[in-house]
Fold this protein.
Amino acid sequence: MSENRILIVDDQKAIAEIIAKIAESCGYSAEVTTDAARVLERVDNWAPTHIILNLKMPGVDGIEVLRHLAARKSHARIIIASGAGGKVVDVARQLGVERQLDLAATVLKPFRRDEMRALLERLKVDDWCTPDALKAAIDDGEMILAYQPKIDLVSRAVVGFEALIRWLHPRRGMIAPDMFLPTVEENGLIELLTDAVVDMVIARLTAWGEAYNGRIALNLSNRGLRDMSFPDRLAFGCAAAGIDPERIELELTESSAMADPAMTMDILSRLRLKGFWLSLDDFGTGFSSLSRLARLPFSEIKIDKSFVRDCATSQESRLIVKSIIDLAHNLNLRAVAEGIENTAIQEIVTGLGCDMVQGYYIAKPMAAERVLQWLGDWGRRSQAINANQATRPPEPEAPSAGAPLGTMTYDG
Ligand code: C2E
Ligand code: CA
Ligand code: CA
């Protein structure tokens, strides 16, 4: 299967077929559908890397298709093709961007063949992120972990570090997980990656020894829990290294925790029985059934950073954050606000009763080699602040702008 798969969604079959021919001559695999309802089926089963979408089709409109793609967290590069006026296209672009879709280009119809060819050439996915390259990277130890601390708001103690994966590519430098995790998940490599992360976390706890006796959290796949043998493998790895399972926490997103009720409950219960901690990540972005949530053995809820970030400026986000904190407490869970970027946000979530925080304001994700030094600095600064009875947290590091691919630092 080609690395570049394009789905052409257009009710004008002749035009769609012309685009398919051009795409094939550029090295894409192409499929055409004149039926918008089929788009989601092809997204699920064929995973197109690119979608050309005609905005105006009888029956279903392109805006609706964009909404469905956003709900599925599609990573496809989307090209809007439209004969409709520029305004409609602008609205579609804005909606797509707000929903974090990759709106790569807009083509106004009628288009010239050479224009279309140039565009498709430009938008082709480079072949650095192929399943084979990813498997080799995992096997060859090119995947590394950055660590970001989580702080208790009352005691200011470091309650743990979250391990976040990066690909240290020999030519491209540090690559953020969002760039390669979809390919990992779509190609059956997630178990291999999770096992590699588990090994790295256990090795790290062993290497730190007495110098750090807290917890490390690791992220499980967004695709949900399907691997019934994972709890046993994890427990075995810990036992072999002499690591107490209480020192490992597993973060699972809200949407994946709600995915397959029976299997999720089975795996999560066994993980908890073995002593691992469970954290519900990105809360607020999925659709939790509250009765299921109450029965799942989580010990904390992490409020998605999109709500936390907007807390200082949006009354609605503040209300959402407050409701999630209250919900957590009513279910006897602890609430963590992630994505704390400045003092104003930290003060708001503190006022709303949040228990723990994580974010660039406290520390950006850092290399394993920096963690012990950072812990020492944090302890000293916290002591000094407590001694002065000040309420301000230690001065954070300067926030960094998002770095481009290849020049990314550990912080993402
Ligand atoms: P996540 O689990 O929600 O992790 C938090 C993300 O927010 C991280 O991005 C982190 O660097 C970033 N972040 C932390 N503090 C702030 C802040 O104050 N402001 C902003 N704007 N961002 C902040 P990162 O490292 O790029 O990871 C992205 C996602 O990739 C993670 O989201 C997680 O879903 C996934 N991921 C990371 N490591 C792994 C892994 O080992 N396995 C799996 N399956 N997924 C992973
Ligand atoms: Ca997480
Ligand atoms: Ca999160």
Observations:
- The radius of gyration is 23 Å.
- The pocket of calcium ion (ligand 2) is lined by residues 162, 219, 251, 281 (CB under 6 Å).
- The chain is about 45% helix and 20% strand.
- Confidence is low (pLDDT under 50) at residues 398-407.
